[in-house]
Predict the structure.
Amino acid sequence: MTITHDLSILNLIMQASVIVKLVMSLLAFLSLTSWYWIFRKWFQIRAARAKTDGFERDFWSGGDLDLMYQSAAGGRFRSGGLERIFESGYREFTKLRGSTHDAGATIDGARRAMRATYQREVDDLDAHLAFLASVGSVSPYIGLFGTVWGIMNAFRGLSNVGAATLTHVAPGIAEALVATAIGLFAAIPAVVAYNRFAHDIDRISIRFESFMEEFSNILQRNLR
């Protein structure tokens, strides 16, 4: 019973050396921060997908472009990236159509405006994904450093023991391995979330690009 109590996770953490405790604290901070951004990005991407679906449904229902632009500029669709792309493109198209008779320049200007807004929207969706990737890649190594340091301390402690037994070795090895476990606990969710979010953002960006091309064709037909 005593060995079981001594080898409990909480007791191992409390009895760890200062360096190992610092490693565990850093990993706990990284894990909590990564979970914060996992939930934030999940809600952000979910909202972006829902807004994109809603605007595409309204746009392809055959509504008047001027009315849709007025609604978008007035704030009705301001929370969606696709709406902002549409708004910037149609605003530039309207401005250039009244100032030049060059159809190619008008369409190119609208495309550039949409491309700039598209880049801002994708950058906003990509924000903090690099942090999740970093946590996923470095946390196991940070945990491994704590494990190596703990095992070194455990073997140093054996130098003062005449006959080393499992009872002497187990607590030091176990507390060292807790650091690796915490590192994996921080890394695995971050890697899974990064891969999932990167895939979802790629899908949304493809939808943005497809809309820009299709909308450019619509604008070009309106110039004829």
